[in-house]
Amino acid sequence: MTGNHKHTTITRRRALAVAGGTVAAGGLATVGYQSAFADTKNTATATTTATASSSARSGTCMELMSSVTEGPYYLDGALVRKDITEGKSGVPLTLRLTVVDATDGCTPVPGAAVEIWHCDAWGYYSGYTTANPGGSAPAESEDGSTANDKTYLRGYQVANANGVVKFETIVPGWYTPRTCHIHLKVHTGGAKEDGTYEGGKVNFTGQLFFDDEIAESIFALEPYSKHTGSYTKLADDMVYDGGGASSGLLTLKAVHKKDPSKGYKGFLTLGIDPDAENTGAGSGGGGGTPPSGAPAPSSSSSSSS
């Protein structure tokens, strides 16, 4: 598995544009989420709205980018919810994404469903909790949380009238041979049903990335520091192609510059082509299968960890 493993979208237009911005930061680990991630009229939200509005007025959109692989850890049936942590500990991350139509002057796409999933602080994904994250890490079951083995750190949010979705999560850890990242799909044409999102099509499959310096400062903290080994930097990652925000690099700002444990907020504007379709499946690598080989979902569907 070498190279960038880009996967061209099935459309006459390319699928997604991503633009980053400076943001304000959030609260603390698994404690105080209500106050740490309260909806306020903050700079991040205002900047996101301004970016989309400005693009719409000018008739231009952000730099387009191709879809990439969904990786080996995707599961169907993620829940529609804002807080996806389920008690998993880590540095808080509030993620705000604005979905706009890149083929129509960056007008908002209300009703678009954004799906994200990522590993916990030790590199384990729900549904694959026995897959070796590489290096040396405690077993996933030793984290002390009550998270569901099949659902933690996965979820959908459906865009509001302004095309905005918001997630409350933690900064992911890492696993060999990948850098710190969050997986992302943008769906349109479906609807909420039985707690999840059904129907429609996937317009884009991508990944969001973290600055090396920020990631490494976080990985020096508990509980991340219990996972030791060789961390893959952005320049050496098999998926990230060095394109900055247009390649999914999040712009982040800590609440306290000298205390990364206080958390971060980040946002990107996602300019989709509603005619595009790309699930990211079957693209032949790039997801970063861990040293133990291609993972299989955990057999238990509801055990705690």
How would you characterize this protein structure?
There is one protein chain. Mean pLDDT is 78; it is low at 1-60 and 299-305. Strands 2, 3, 5, 6, 9, 12 and 13 form a seven-stranded mixed beta sheet that branches. The protein has helices at residues 33-36, 43-58, 212-219; strands at 6-7, 16-20, 64-65, 67-68, 92-101, 107-108, 113-117, 154-158, 164-170, 181-193, 196-209, 251-256, 259-272. It starts with 5 loop residues before the first strand and ends in a 33-residue tail after the last strand. It has 305 residues and is mostly beta strands. 9% of the residues lie in helices and 29% in strands. The chain has three helices and 13 strands.
Brief rundown of the structure:
By secondary structure, the chain is mainly beta. Helix content is 9%, strand content 29%.
Task: Write the SSE topology.
Blueprint: E1 6-7, E2 16-20, H1 33-36, H2 43-58, E3 64-65, E4 67-68, E5 92-101, E6 107-108, E7 113-117, E8 154-158, E9 164-170, E10 181-193, E11 196-209, H3 212-219, E12 251-256, E13 259-272
